[in-house]
Amino acid sequence: MNLTTDATMPAMAARVLEQAPETFALAGLSMGGYCALEIIRQAPERVTRLALLDTSAEPDTPDRTEIRMQWIDEAAAGGFEDLIPRHARRQPRGIGHNHLSELGFVRPPGHGHTFGIA
Length: 118
Description:
single chain, disordered C terminus
């Protein structure tokens, strides 16, 4: 599911809720955790289980916001390709967006409705 066209977390969550099954398990990785928490805020009755990975339940600190804005400026100036290798090293080895299904978060066969956000 592509959430990059949405400008706000509430809009991202609304898009997920439009496309998700009536009830579902939810995993949020990194920024997806912020979206998962917004989904819980909007429709708690629809989420049967929640896993939050490498994320925070608190808003960014002013220092963290400043760093995030610097990254956005770098990406907008054409430096996105350089951001990935520089910051990917900070992620735990072996865990990433493509590995959520291995952890059982993205519709594993025979396990009912499971819906993940990475």
